[in-house]
Design goal:
By secondary structure, the chain is α/β, with parallel strands linked by helices. The protein is about 40% helix and about 20% strand. It is built from seven helices and five strands; from the N terminus they run H-H-E-H-E-H-E-H-H-E-H-E. A five-stranded parallel sheet has the order 1-2-3-4-5. Helix 3 runs parallel beside helix 4. The relative contact order is 0.16.
């Protein structure tokens, strides 16, 4: 896919594609996967979509087609925790997904709102818990130093990260990008 329909204030993606979100068909994607796996021997793929499981039906179609074609490879992707459920995540796992990278960003609802993340702490917990239940590894992207961050919100983020207990995590210090809010 290209683009993202969301408008997180720190992200430059909307400057590249706007909020336009375009997709290739599931058949087209899996045909390319089959080609690179069978012809070139790749055994690991990174789906570079900003939000791989944005459209659940398409996600399920891609996963089922990977299974139907007996493509043997592992893969990972980016996702929003508020857009996943156990059905989609279990399908992703069966199709070879090993780890999902979630943009958690903060453990403070105030900071998520300041970033225009359009998701709640509860949705993050739900999505990450579902990923763990189906056996997927979880990576949590965190961001600190966004405007209006303070000691209390940093402490909430650290405590939340401990509660989530992802398999992996990384921190980014917020930095301004031209054209972002």
């Amino acid at each position: 896919t290209r683009g993202c329909p969301y408008g997180c204030f720190f992200c430059s993606e909307k400057l590249v594609f706007g909020r336009r979100y375009t997709v290739r068909s599931a058949d087209n994607v899996v045909a390319e996967l089959e080609d690179i796996i069978r012809k070139y021997g790749y055994d690991r793929v990174w789906f570079a979509d900003d939000i791989f499981p944005l459209r659940k039906e398409r996600t399920l179609q891609i996963c089922q087609e990977i299974i139907n074609r007996a493509l043997n490879f592992t893969w990972s992707c980016l996702a929003r925790a508020d857009l996943v459920d156990e059905e989609a995540l279990a399908s992703m796992k069966r199709a070879g997904c090993e780890i999902v990278f979630f943009g958690v960003e903060s453990g403070s609802q105030r900071m998520l709102d300041a970033m225009n993340r359009m998701m709640t702490i509860e949705q993050i917990v739900s999505g990450i818990s579902a990923a763990k239940r189906v056996g997927l590894k979880v990576h949590a992207f965190m961001m600190v130093g966004f405007p209006s961050e303070n000691y209390a919100s940093l402490k909430q983020t650290i405590d939340f990260l401990k509660e989530l207990s992802p398999d992996e995590f990384s921190f980014t210090v917020a930095y301004p990008l031209p054209g972002t809010e």
